[in-house]
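User: Design a sequence. Structure:
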């Protein structure tokens, strides 16, 4: 069944929200991960729309409950607890695997900021992960898990985000899987410049398409 729907799933003791967009004869499922903010992120929703048009189902999920999100806005701790975020992401992946509409779809991850580190840790735990795309991510926070990632990984960074660019460049030496570093000219960390997010979406789409076949 095609279309977008709001769903909920359980991770540990938390009930979390998810926005699923299903397409006919999907190439696979791309699960979005972020360290802060909700599944209603306009940037992630924009990228998800491009992936839907390319034939991918998408799942935009909340890794934090509403109460955890309120606490994190003050402490900023949970967004940097990568193991915690990765466990939540794996719980979402397991939930999707148990749903009739999505159980047969191969999974890839699209992670932003610290959510990219969580996506890489999750991919290290699940070697069947089809591909990973990181937008302005912090792969350095994935630690030793980087060396265990087998999924082809695309790191997208803005040219005008020098600290994150340096961290992503260093991560290339830690990742043993097929990896590319894509630098978007003129873009800063949030890719708010005209055309920058479109470039992110295009590169992510092409990466997932390239690695959608078994």
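Assistant: Done.
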């Amino acid at each position: 069944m095609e279309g977008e729907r709001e769903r909920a799933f359980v991770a540990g003791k938390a009930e979390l929200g998810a926005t699923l967009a299903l397409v006919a004869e999907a190439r696979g499922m791309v699960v979005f991960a972020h360290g802060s903010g909700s599944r209603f992120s306009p940037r992630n929703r924009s990228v998800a729309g491009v992936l839907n048009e390319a034939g991918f189902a998408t799942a935009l999920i909340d890794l934090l409950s509403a109460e955890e999100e309120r606490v994190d806005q003050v402490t900023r701790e949970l967004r940097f607890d990568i193991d915690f975020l990765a466990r939540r992401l794996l719980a979402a992946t397991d939930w999707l695997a148990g749903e009739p509409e999505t159980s047969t779809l191969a999974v890839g991850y699209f992670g932003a900021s610290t959510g990219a580190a969580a996506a890489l840790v999750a991919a290290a735990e699940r070697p069947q992960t089809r591909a990973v795309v990181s937008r302005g991510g912090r792969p350095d926070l994935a630690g030793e898990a980087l060396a265990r990632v087998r999924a082809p990984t695309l790191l997208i960074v803005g040219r005008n985000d020098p600290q994150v660019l340096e961290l992503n460049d260093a991560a290339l030496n830690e990742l043993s899987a097929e990896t590319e570093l894509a630098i978007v000219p003129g873009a800063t960390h949030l890719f708010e410049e005209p055309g920058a997010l479109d470039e992110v979406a295009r590169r992510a789409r092409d990466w997932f398409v390239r690695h959608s076949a078994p």
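The domain at 3-210 is CATH 3.40.50.1820 (Rossmann fold). The two ends are 23 Å apart (CA to CA).
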